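User: Second chain of the day. Same drill as before.
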Amino acid sequence: MYILATGDVVITGIIDVSGESTTNTTLTSPGKGGPGGYDGGYGGASGLPGGKGLGPGAGGGGPSASYRYAGGGGYGSPGGSVGANYGAGGPAYGNARLVPLIGGSGGGGMSGSTTTSGYGGGGGGGAILIASSTSITVTGSITANGGNGYSIAGGGSGGAIRLMANTISGNGTISAKGGSLSAAYHGGQGFIRLEAYTNNRSAGTEPPYSYGQPGSVFVANIPSLSITSVAGVSVPASPTGSYAQPDMFLPGTTVNPVTVTLSAANIPVGTTVTVSVVPQYGAAADTTAALSGSDASSTASANVNLSTQYSNVIMAQTTFTLLASIQYENEKIKKVRVATRLGGASETIYITESGREIPAAELIAKLMK
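Assistant: Same format as last time:
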């Protein structure tokens, strides 16, 4: 979510882009992610494992009736987990500069017991950027918290809050914490970024914010990747990537495997893309395909098997070697990773020889100085 203003911004009320929590009345349904965040995983029906959450830091579902605990979603920090035999905590991802702007990941759903269903995981906190040409004052609250997972379902990770202005003032609440009903399967914390030439704020935030001078809101001409069609059906203009409200319904005559088509920009021809299908319940499956066309504009097609019993979320990712010699803080940039999902924006990360990950906007800003 972007709020761009040409004058003063004063927040005295509540801006809340938090993920949804689950309760004893939501049953197997997961919490929805806030705007730009990802949904939690579904709770398993009786005798079935819980579903994995959505997002780059998705928490794992409870694996069986004997090991029902799910894992929390990760983002600024990893999600929590009870132990090796239970749902895994999601990994950390993203960066403190919040470039690109992306929300938190969903917690895993708890598995069903031999007699009852499990509860869904909490949704990941959303992502919000507020930019003013003059000042931002916060005396109310801005929250992008992860949703709680009811009972032993995983909590969603906190989301992202980025404020940009000449001056930032006010000691209102700014929070992007992970959802939790337990320290064991909590959601990881999110990110908070304040950018201003003058920071008059004396209060802290949860988690603690990072600080710098205002940068760019949007960056163009970076590598991108998107999913364009599934089984010959075009992806809608504004997909959500949610199990609860599917973006696409395929004809009843559709049989596996189905073709997923992708488009890319500024990625070398021949680069291999991994397409992942994550069903509402059960294990994910990966397929690869090579890009063809030109480096500026290319396409690929992958044949995948979709679950015929449950909804599916489709994601794609590729990493390629950078041939040009680019230095960042005395270290060579070696690779570029580009990832997307149906319903999500493309994310581009540059990787140095030592493994350090640099968001695209940060690298471009450095090179332009």
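The helical segments are 360-368.

User: Great, on to the next one.
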